[in-house]
Every structure is written in C-alpha cells, then in structure tokens.
Amino acid sequence: MFGYIVPFKPELKIKDFETYKSVYCGLCHQLSKSFGPFSRLFLSYDFAFMSLFFMSLNDATPCFEKKRCISSPFRKKCCMCSGPELEYCAASAATLVDFKNQDGVADSGFFGALPYRFLRLITKRPAKSVQRTRPELYETVEHNIHLQAQVEASPEVTFDMAAEPTAAIVSFLAADRARDEDERRILARFGYFLGRLIYMFDAADDYFKDKKKSRFNPYLRDPQYCTLMPKQLSQRLKESFNGTIAELIAAYQLLTIRKNKEILDNFIFLGFKSRFTQVLNQFEGEQHDGSI
Amino acid sequence: MTDPYKVLGVGRDATDEEIKTAYRNLAKKYHPDAYQGNPLADLAASKMQEINEAYDQIMEQRRNASRQNSTGSSYTNQGYGGYQGGSSSFNDIRRLINSGRIVEADELLNGVPEASRGAEWNFLKGSILYSKGWVDDALRYYRTAVEMDPGNREYKAAFDRLTYQRSGGMGGFGAQNNNQVGCTMCDMCSALMCMDCLCGGRMC
User: Which candidate among A63, A105, A117, B86 keeps its CA 20 to 30 Å from the CA of B40?
Assistant: First the structure.
C-alpha cells in the first residue's frame, strides 16, 4: 500500500501536491477498472510516481474528474482520468504483486504461506490477464523474480548483484514507454537506477528485521557491508545512496520533461533523500510509520 | 530552429552576466567529464553542443547588435571519445566498451588469466560494472586499479569521479548548499572551465 518513492511535502506547492494526489487516486480507480475492486490493494506510492513520471514525458493535457473514494466516503476527490500511463502502471503493479505473493508462498512454511495463498486469490487472475495482454512485461518480471531467487541462493552476493533484478524490472518498465531510441536509452538507465534505489530502500528498511529472523538481506551478505556496525553501515549506505542518485540525476537531466517538472524535481532532489534519512534513522534507533 | 534563449533557460531581456551564469550552470551539468564512461555520454555531448551553439548564437547576436568585442565563447568539447590508450592486449576490450558491447567485453575480460590481471584489468572491470550500473562494485575495482598504478591519471579520474559522487557532489547526503560562502568544488570547476575557454588557445 505504501512505498518509498514519496515527495518532500514541505517544499511542494499545494497545487502540485493536489496533482500528485489525483494521480494516486487515478491509479486506484484504474486498478479497480482494469482488475476489479480488490485489486486496489496493489496501489503504491511507487507506481503513483511512475504514472506521474510517464505522464510528464508527453504533451497531453491532463484530465481530472471528481470521484468517490473508499477512504473518504462523504467527499468526492479529484482524480486523474483513466489513460495509457495509468493502465500501464496498473498492469505492472498487478504483475509484480502476484509474483511477490508466489514468492511468499514458495519461501514460507505451510502456515506462513497461508496469507500469501489467500492474497493470490486476488492477484492471480489480474496477473494472468497481463500475461495475455502484455506478454513481454509479464515475462520480464517473471524472469527477474526467478533471477532474484537465484541471486539470494548464491554463495557470494554483493549488493549490486542483489539489486540487479529489481533494477532490471524498473528499467524495462521505463524504457517500454519510450517513443524513440534516444529516449529509450535514457529511460532504461533512469529506470535502472530508480529500481536500484527502491531495492536499496527495501533492504535498508528491512535490515534489522531480516537480521533477527535470519532472512536474506544484501547488507548481511555483501562482504563490504556485513561486518559493519550500524553507525558505520549508515554512513556507507549514504555513500551508496549518493552514488545511485548521482547516476539517476545524470539520466534524468537528459530527458525532455514536458510538464510537472517541479513535482518530479521535488521527488528526485528532495523526496528520495528525505525518505532515506527516515529509513536510516533506524540505525540511530528511531522508526517511521510509512506514510508520506 | 530552437530558440537559444529557451535552451539556456533565460529570458530575452537577460543581462550578459545572467546568460553567462546560466551557461556555466548548464555546462557544469552536461560537461563531458560528468558523463565520462556513462553509456549516455553521446547524448550528453549532443546536449552540450546544443547549449554551446545557443550560447554562441546569443553572444554573436548581441555582439553584432552592440558592435563590441567578443565577451568570450563557449567551452569547446575536447572530444572525450571514451576509453583510450592502454596496452594493445586490452584495446579490443576498450573498443567493445566504447561501442556499448558490455557483455562481450566482460566475457573477454574474464578470460584473462589471474596472473595477468593488473591495474588496467581492474580499471576495465570497473568500467564495465559502472556501465551496467553496479556502481558499488565498480568503485572497488577502480580503487584496486589506482592502488596498483597510482600514477595513472585515467584510473585516478574514474575513481575520483565515483568518490565525488558518493560524497554528495552530484546530489544526496553532504551535497553542497548553493548559498555556501567560499570556494566549493563547483567554483573550482567553473573557474577552470572559464580559464580554459578564454585562454585555451584563443585569447592568451
């Protein structure tokens, strides 16, 4: 439901925040339209960002409408109309969530797998429908989820190796929306580092939980990180974050952003760092509730 | 023909100083050094050329309008054509990396026996990893290359660039505040670029 790709609210204009929220609402409605009401569970901040990002690459005038919302039953909310970018992100989200649930079933014991089996009742059909309508997307996600399992089972793992499958998925998703070869190359690299960033957020946020439950975490396996104390690890994570964001920005700068540039700039130059700071607070002893 | 003022992101009534500042800021972002080894380097070079042309066009127009001496010209692209030099045994690998054929380059590199894996091998391994996006691992190989051959400028430049990124030079934690007083790395860089374009064989 949540995710790590969030804006830095204090520096966001109200009109821009309203635009972003309407994309989030739009994605929720799109999920319901494409895959049924229960698929609203696939909603995440990460895919709301991807939808907004894709919309920003073209000149199409944004279209908004007032719609009812489960979370606000008495007041209609401003919502982005259905469109190709929202459809694409809804399909991607549905596919990813189903594979994550399959993973959950495979990795857990009988009782541990039950919640995932239950969720698969909701996620299986949407994913199958994406397999029919967007086979390349489905196969890329499938291939990389299996690759992830292989990497985690390898005797020697580095963070880069572990981040590769997630990075490759987001790279594919981004490049898939390109309209020419130059844009495809830039989007592929932008998507790669965005995916890598998402994986980094996940791995850092789950570090202590994974350590306690002896689950896979790249920072517990990579020789560069596994011997470090929390404070040193936090410093090293900042450096790795910086290295990743530098490459993300280098690619982002080469894109022609046609609208919503202030919102995207807020995410990229302020939002990511702010959210990562919150994640790193765990290494100093604090927790975050997961909201924007 | 694209509006040169739009390319530089300034209004038509911008002063010469504002135009120079806008040019400097853009040059810092798209300078070939910032994209050295990046698979998108050619696209950045096109962008840099567009910016240079816009700057030259505006300065030319203003010069003609006011009939005064040139106030300086754009930073010419010194043609950083990717990885050059090195021993002949690795030239094939360098050529493959330059043309984006990373998988083949990696296969060839992995075929080199352990005993022959010196500084250049480590540098090229780092470059391949950087191209793939494995920036953490790339740093380790660049570091080894520099340790094995401390005098080599190519290896040091690559290592320094990644280290600069990791310390917040291109954004993130420890990033330089725009309002910082005193000489930052950005001031050093832009001063060197300006000296280069004014004194690089043209006016001195």
Answer: B86
Contact A34, A10 (CB under 8 A): no
Contact list in B for residue A159 (CB cut-off 8 A) is 136
Q: Which residue of A189, A242, A277 is in closest CB contact with B165? A: A242
B195 close contact with A: CB closer than 8 A: no
Q: Which residues of A touch B169 (CB under 8 A)?
A: 242, 246
Asked whether the beta carbons of residue B172 and residue A254 sit closer than 8 angstroms, the reply is: no
Which residues on adjacent β-strands are paired with residue A80? A64
Tokens coding A238: 């900042």
Minimum CA–CA partner of B7 in chain A: A256
Residues of A in contact with B161 (CB under 8 A): none
Distance from CA of A170 to the nearest CA of B (A): 13
User: CA nearest A56: which of A265, A258, A267?
Assistant: A258
What burial letters (b/e) apply to B36-56, b meaning 16+ CB within 10 Å?
bbbbbbebbbebbebbbebbe
Count CB-CB contacts under 10 A for residue B100: 14
Write down the pTM of the prediction.
0.86
Q: Please give the interface size between A and B, counted as residue pairs whose CB atoms are below 8 Å apart.
A: 91
Q: Which residue has the tokens 């050059």?
A: B84
Could you tell me how many residues make up chain A? Answer: 292
CB contact under 8 A, A186 and B29: no
Inter-chain touch B172–A242, beta carbons under 8 Å: yes
Report pLDDT digits (tens) over B74-114. Answer: 655 444 445 555 556 688 899 999 888 999 999 999 999 99
For residues A203 and A219, is the Cβ–Cβ distance under 8 A?
yes
ipTM: 0.84
- Quick check: B166 and B140 in contact, CB under 8 A? no
Confidence of residue B67 (pLDDT cuts 50, 70, 90): low
Determine, for residues B165 and A247 on separate chains, whether the beta-carbon distance falls below 8 Å. yes
Per-10-residue mean pLDDT for chain A, 292 residues long? 88 94 93 91 92 94 86 84 93 92 84 87 92 95 94 94 97 95 96 97 94 93 92 94 96 95 96 95 70 60
* DSSP string for A83-106: -HHHHHHHHHHHHHHHHHHHHHHH
Q: Which two tokens stand for residue B21?
A: 């500042």
B27–A contact, CB cutoff 8 A: no
What sections of chain B are H helices per DSSP?
A: 4-8, 16-30, 41-66, 91-98, 102-110, 119-132, 135-148, 153-166, 185-199
Structure tokens at A290: 């997961």
Pairwise CB contact (< 8 Å): B170 & A250:
yes
Residue B203, pLDDT score: 44
Q: How far apart are the C-alpha atoms of B168 and B175, rounded to whole Å?
A: 4
